[in-house]
Amino acid sequence: MPLTLMSGCATGIGAATRQALEAAGHQIIGIDIRDAEIVADLSTSAGRQQALHEALARCGGRLDGLVLCAGLGPQTPDVGKVVSVNYFGAVELLDGLLPALQRGTAPAAVVISSVASAHLLWDKNPLAQALEGGDEAQAQAIVRGAGEHGGNLAYAGSKNALTVAVRKRAGSWGQAGVRLNTVAPGATETPLLQAGLQDPRFGESIAKFVPPLGRRAEPAEMASVITFLMGSGASYVHGAQICIDGGIDAQMRPTQF
Ligand code: NAI
C-alpha cells in the first residue's frame, strides 16, 4: 500500500483527492490547518518545520507519494499569507521530503498550481527574485504594498513561481528517481472559489472566467487526474504541468505552450 503525504486535504480539491487516492489503495497522512493527522499552519516557517518534523516521524523517513494542495485564494484578507502558503508551504515541503521519497517505491509527487501560473510570466513576475531567493519577508512586503492589485499579484505571482520551482527541480528529482509534476486547475467548485465569487473585488471577473467547456469543474475532476499522475500509468510523465481547465488556457493563449 503506497504511503502518501498530502497537504490541504481538509476541503475542496484536496479532500476529493484524498478520497480518490484512498480508493486507489493509498494510505494518507494529511497536513492541514484543521481536520488532518498533522495540524500545522503552513503560512509560517515554524508551522512548516513542525509539519516536516511530524511528517518524517510518522512515515519513518520513507514515503511513496506527496500531493501538495494547500493554498489560499486572492481574496485572502492578508495577502502576505497567500505567498507564504502557496509558495513556501509547497516548496519547503518538496525540498524537505525529497530524501524520504527517494527511499519510497515508484515515488511520485504532484503539486497543485493554477491556470493563474501563466497569467504572470516569470520574467515579468515582481515576486520571482524574492520567492526564488527564499526571502519571504520581501515577497510579503511587495504584495502588501501593491494596494488593490495585491490579491491578484500574490496569487498569480506565487503560482507562477511555484510552477517554475517544480520545473527547475525536474532535473535533480528525475536523477533521484522521483517523478514530480504540477496540475493547473481552472475554476473548480470549492470553498476557495466560493469565497472569491462572494468578494466584490473578484466576484465578477471570476464569474466571467468561463472555459470552452461552458462550466466550472468539480473537485473530483481534479482528483482523478492527480490520481493518474501518482500511479504507474504516468510512469514517464515528469516535469509536466497538466492543465485541467476546460480549455481556458488554450483559449486564452493559443500560441503559447
Ligand atoms: P480549499 O480552500 O477548499 O482548500 C485549501 C486547503 O488548504 C484547505 O484544506 C485549507 O484548510 C488548507 N490550508 C489553507 N491555509 C492553510 C495553512 N495556512 N496551513 C495549512 N493548510 C492550509 O481550496 P481548493 O480550491 O480546494 O484549493 C486547493 C488548491 O487548488 C489550492 O492550491 C488552490 O490555489 C488551487 N486551485 C484552486 C482553484 C479553484 O478554482 N478552486 C483553481 C486553481 C487552483
Automatic annotation (TrEMBL):
<dbReference type="Pfam" id="PF13561">
    <property type="entry name" value="adh_short_C2"/>
</dbReference>
<keyword id="KW-0560">Oxidoreductase</keyword>
<dbReference type="InterPro" id="IPR002347">
    <property type="entry name" value="SDR_fam"/>
</dbReference>
<comment type="similarity">
    <text>Belongs to the short-chain dehydrogenases/reductases (SDR) family.</text>
</comment>
<protein>
    <submittedName>
        <fullName>NAD(P)-dependent dehydrogenase, short-chain alcohol dehydrogenase family</fullName>
    </submittedName>
</protein>
<dbReference type="InterPro" id="IPR036291">
    <property type="entry name" value="NAD(P)-bd_dom_sf"/>
</dbReference>
<dbReference type="GO" id="GO:0016491">
    <property type="term" value="F:oxidoreductase activity"/>
</dbReference>
<dbReference type="Pfam" id="PF00106">
    <property type="entry name" value="adh_short"/>
</dbReference>
